[in-house]
Amino acid sequence: MAKIVCVLYDDPIDGYPKTYARDDLPKLEKYPDGQTLPTPKAIDFTPGALLGSVSGELGLRKFLEAGGHKLVVTSDKDGANAALDREIGDAEIVISQPFWPAYLTAERIAKAKSLKLAITAGIGSDHVDLQAAMERGLTVAEVTFCNSISVAEHVVMMILSLVRNYIPSHQVVLDGGWNIADCAARSYDVEGMSVGTVAAGRIGLAVLRRMKPFDVKLHYTDRHRLPADVEKELGLTFHASAAEMVPHCDVVTINCPLHPETEHLFDDKMIARMKRGAYLINTARGKIADRDAVARALKSAQLAGYAGDVWFPQPAPRDHSWRTMPHHGMTPHISGTSLSAQARYAAGVREILECWFDGRPIRDEYLIVSGGKLAGTGAHSYSAGNATGGSEEAARFKRE
Ligand code: NDP
Questions:
Q1: Which homologous superfamily is 3-146+338-399 in?
Q2: pTM, whole model, 2 decimals?
Q3: Is the CATH number of domain 148-323 3.40.50.10860?
Q4: Which of 223, 339, 367 to mutate to test the pocket of ligand 1 (most atoms within 8 A of CB)?
Q5: Rounded to an integer, what distance in angstroms lies between the CA atom of residue 167 and that of residue 273?
Q6: Each residue of 199-239: pLDDT tens digit?
Q7: CB-based contacts of 214: which residues, under 8 Å, 6+ apart?
């Protein structure tokens, strides 16, 4: 029997939904690169239901209890005496979502004497101290591809929203106004602009594909170059580094994981290399951008806009400067947790758990750390080290 601690975000303020806006989800056959969707033996939830909040329990309770396991679900993850810290001591498995990350710091991992497996219900395991996980011999797995397209759609939405000045224009309507000039004074067409992505992995490539029909010039940088036929098909210009790419771009979108190589990549120096009036979209991880450098660049008009859904830490303190800086289009961390994405990552978590309990290998593409080293997708996309430093600040949201 295993104890599983699952950290999920709170239910909606008005309570767990009784009905939904739509009756079903489109059925996807496979991911764009041919990877199969999650293949658990069964699921105990209705796709399209809210699974990522506490009452949704990722649809896991029936399955886990039928196997004789103990499931504890909580949203209480930060600060002194959080439920996570009270429960983690004898847990074999911790499940967490990047949207409401249970930061598995070295201190927490040391306290979790029985911990063997950390599952990310989503993509991006930077909330786990991967260095400590390797040293302890933990397995870290995530549901690769489950929400990559969800995020790519969000990136396109945010590029268009910023460039066309959608959010302030919508506000004019809400305010009962008709101030055309106020809306138009910061509104441009995307057509003809140069758009560059930092990383062309699953999300970055999907963004490039989705932006192509807007008749823009496409740029990218990545540690590994895309196949020549893909570069040709999309008309891509490759740059050896982000620093070399950004001076050429009107719009930069960040789509790499957070790891020691990318932490604070977008600092004052990098932003100064961008064109004046460029837009920066970051749906990858908040810490890839330097918080204060971004706010300064918006105030000085070096950046015309910044948007994304990722912050550091999460939840962001109420006085986080990104809440109030000018010309931003921030949302809470939501792009990868649409109801469509939740159905995929809940099924993926179930698949990983079934493999774990059956003693079958977890798919290589789901692995980040295994056998004391980076493995699978982790070995390709991450570098060793820890990116959780400073996460204790997340407790401020609870206290404020
Ligand atoms: P992939 O693993 O498919 O792609 C990541 C890409 O980043 C890889 O191509 C990798 O290169 C590249 N990369 C890594 N380090 C660098 C670097 N220093 N410079 C340039 N490129 C680099 O992952 P996804 O595209 O699916 O997801 C990317 C990230 O997006 C996740 O790690 C997560 O942080 C974030 N995300 C956010 C979500 C949200 O809800 N906002 C949801 C899902 C993901 P290579 O492998 O070639 O070495």
A1: NAD(P)-binding Rossmann-like Domain (3.40.50.720)
A2: 0.97
A3: no
A4: 223
A5: 27
A6: 999 999 999 999 999 999 999 999 999 999 999 999 999 99
A7: 190, 191
